[in-house]
Amino acid sequence: MMNVNNLVENGFEVFPVNGKKPLTEHGYLSASSEILQVWEWERKYKNCGWGFRLDQQQLIVIDVDNHGNNDGNQSIKANFTDEQRQFLSSCVYDKTPNNGYHFFLRLPDLFAKKLKETYQPFKGVEIKTVCINYYDNIRNGSLFDVPIAPDWALKLLKDKPVNNNYSSSDFKARGHHKIASYWVKNLKDLMQGTEQGNRNVWLTSVCGTWINSGLSADEVFKLVQFANMNLTHPLDNKEILTIFNSIYRKDCK
C-alpha cells in the first residue's frame, strides 16, 4: 500500500483512485481521515493509488505537466521570473510518474476568495485547489511544512465571473443593491421548490446557478441536497449525485 498512513495520522483526508479516477461513489467528497476507512479501501481496491483533499488543508498545487503535447517546464521558463522559478525549486514538491511536478503552496490564513477547482494560467501548467493525486515521492521537505503562497502565485488564481449574467465590472456599475437582489432571488427559489414532475429540471437549474456563483463543490452539493430535501417528494441521493456530477463537470471545464 502506498504510504498514506502518515497523511491520515496528520489529519489529511484521502480517497482511493485508479489513475486519476476516484474509486469512491462520491469521488473526493468521500475522502476520509479515518485510518480504519483507509484500510478498508486498501483491502477493497488492491494496489490502488491515492488522492487527497487540498482544500481541507488550505493547500494549492502548481501542477506542471510534461508529457504528450504539454511542456510545462517551457511554460515555467517563459512566464516565470528567475526569482519565481527559484522559489518553486525550493518548494515542497511531488514528482509524478510522467515527469511532471506538483509544487505545494499554502493559502494565507485570511485568504477568503472562493476558488474554482482548477485554473490554467499557461499551457502545461494548472493550479489545483480541491484535490490532487499523491505519488509518495515528496521532496524538499514534507507536506506538513509547506510555504505560504506568495502574491505572484495568488494572482494566478484569476477571478471567475459570479454568474453568466454579471461580470465583476457590472457589479460596480449596477450597485450593491443589485447584487443583494440576485442572491435573495436565488435563495427564494431554493426554498420554494417545484412540482413533482419538474424536479430534475429544476434541481439541474439550481445546481448550475450555484456553480456559476463561484461557490466550492462542497457548498454547491450541500445546497442541492438542501433544495432536494425541501421538495414534497425528494429525489433519491443517486439522482442528486448524477445531476451534480454532470453539471459540475460541464460548467467547471
Task: Explain the overall architecture.
The chain is of the alpha+beta class and about 250 residues long. It folds into three domains: about 55 residues, no CATH class; about 100 residues, Prim-pol fold (2-Layer Sandwich), CATH 3.30.2250; about 80 residues, no CATH class. Helices cover about 40% and strands about 15% of the residues. The chain is built from ten helices and ten strands. The strands form two sheets. Strands 7-8-4-6-5-10 form a six-stranded antiparallel β-sheet. A four-stranded antiparallel β-sheet has the order 2-1-3-9, covered by helices on one side. α9 packs antiparallel against α10. The longest helix is centred in the last third of the chain and has 17 residues. The relative contact order is 0.11. About 10% of the residues have low confidence.
Quick structural summary:
This protein has 253 residues and is an alpha+beta fold. It is built from 10 helices and 10 strands. Helix content is 40%, strand content 17%.
Number of domains: 3
Largest sheet: 6 strands, antiparallel
CATH level-1 class of the largest domain = Alpha Beta
Report the CATH topology name of the largest domain: Prim-pol fold
Q: Structural class, please?
A: alpha+beta
Measure the end-to-end span.
32 Å
Radius of gyration: 20 Å
Count of alpha/pi helices: 10
- Parts with pLDDT < 50 across at least 5 consecutive residues: 160-183
Our estimate of the beta-strand percent is 15-25%
Count the beta strands: 10
Order of helices and strands: HEEHEEHHEEEEEEHHHHHH
